Amino acid sequence: MAKKFPTRPVIRKLGTIECNNIVETTPLIWKGELYRFEVVRRKSFTAAATCAHWRDLDDSPCLRFVHVRSNTATPLFAEDHTFGFPYVVGDTMYVVTGASKTWGAEKLAFFRSKDLENWEKYAEVDLPGWAIYNMNIAERGGVYTLMIEISKPAEETGHKYTFRFLQSTDMTNWTLMPSECVFQKDRYAGSPSIYAFEDDPYYYVGYLEAYPLYRFANSIARSKDFINWEYSPINPVLMYNEFEDKQIASPFLTPEDRKRIEEALDTNNSDMEMCEYLGRTLIYYSWGDQRGTEFLAEAWYEGPMHEFLKAWFEPKE
Fold first, then answer.
1. What is the model's pTM?
2. pLDDT tens, 69-79?
3. What is the DSSP code string of 239-287?
4. Furthest-apart CA pair in the chain: how many Å?
5. In which band, very low, low, confident or very high, does the pLDDT at 156 lie, cut at 50, 70 and 90?
6. Judging by beta carbons within 10 Å of its beta carbon (0-12, 13-18, 19+), is residue 155 exposed, middle or buried?
7. How far is it, in rounded angstroms, from Cα 71 to Cα 6?
8. Which long-range contacts (CB under 8 A, 24 or more apart) does 276-285 make?
């Protein structure tokens, strides 16, 4: 009997929603409203109509949330911290971030708030000699798993970028999992995201796969133990396509923004993160050249997130 392969889920790309290189973002629901978590620069990424390039920036990295419906931002917080990930537990918003003004932090800092305005820095994790970039959190059975993208130390990475894992039962005290709990040491792995569900033994990991000629696409894998990984046979999840990625999906984009979008090189779909909203799966992702000129885009799957993730591995019954 021939093996049955999964059917590729239908993803509808709406197009670009931001044009200011704020691309490593997370959609999430806070008190019933849709927000977007962003890593920004105090001057360069918060001024109107900016076209800042990452290589030209030297001002303070900070964090903020944007209320999507009104396009209004919360006050900046966590100055001189870069990369980050938010996670809601009850009535509290938690954020983990790299305690460094530059990429490749040796220390993780943990913040929490009940109003997105007043923040308490309540915990830290030191990993001397490590270089930490993006991070992501998933929870199942009262255990929180923190996945971090690293490039050092060499014995933990293999390739320059790979993923390691820490776990906690209280979002405060974190334990680094054994070295064999690692994702993809044999080749590049960037743009981490992780998802877990109570009725599913797998952890689903979104990651960036590198292709020849400096091209990149979002892909997906899953594991029950963080050691043995199953890759979707129908990867990639998101592939760059300038006709879809360059659509205009926000009324807030200016004529200057639209010109920059039209002229940009598109060889990358990366930094895929998602949340479930009103029974559908919202996906944010980056497109651009993966060299510092990037755009934030939006896509949707017409169904719940667990259904979407499982569909990349399991044929429909």
1. 0.94
2. 999 999 999 99
3. ---HHHHTSB--TT--HHHHHHHHH----EEEEEEEEEETTEEEEEEEE
4. 61
5. very high
6. exposed
7. 37
8. 276/304, 276/305, 277/27, 277/29, 277/34, 279/303, 279/304, 280/304, 281/305, 281/308, 282/27, 282/34, 283/11, 283/27, 283/238, 284/25, 284/26, 284/27, 284/36, 285/218, 285/238
